[in-house]
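>> Question from a student workshop board

For tomorrow's exercise we were told to take the sequence and the ligand below, predict the bound structure, and bring the output to class. My setup keeps failing. Could a helper post the expected result so I can at least see what it should look like? The ligand is cobalt (II) ion.
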Amino acid sequence: MPTPSMEDYLEKIYQLVEKKGYARAADIADALEVNPSSVTKMIQKLDKDDYLIYERYRGLILTDKGKKVGKKLVERHYVLEEFLRIIGVDDEERVYRDVEGIEHHLSPKSILAIETLVEFLKDHDEIKKMLDDYRKNFEDK
Ligand code: CO
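>> Workshop helper replied:
Here is what the output should look like for this input. Compare the format with yours to find the bug.
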């Protein structure tokens, strides 16, 4: 099992590779707001645990295991963002930060339960509307 910090790196590396076809240490450092020496250390750890292969002059390549876990992490992040939005958190910066905070601490079972709720609310507009109205009254109290 990757640690929370390894998860953050894998999630970001997977996204960078999806978007640009590669992930450079400098881009990872920028995206995670950490210094390049931390990135180097973590890349070595991820390499050791078979999530990626790192070669000094060729950069890094995600292994099948790394791709699989990275994809799951990105999907989990997305489910939790949708969840916060659908229950009424409307500030995108807050949505992102809060998901980064909670995503490592929920079990797959809880994520699935949240995903089910999100899909349920998307499938039932009238109930989503009841929730929105209820929230407005609640916040006005
Ligand atoms: Co995330």
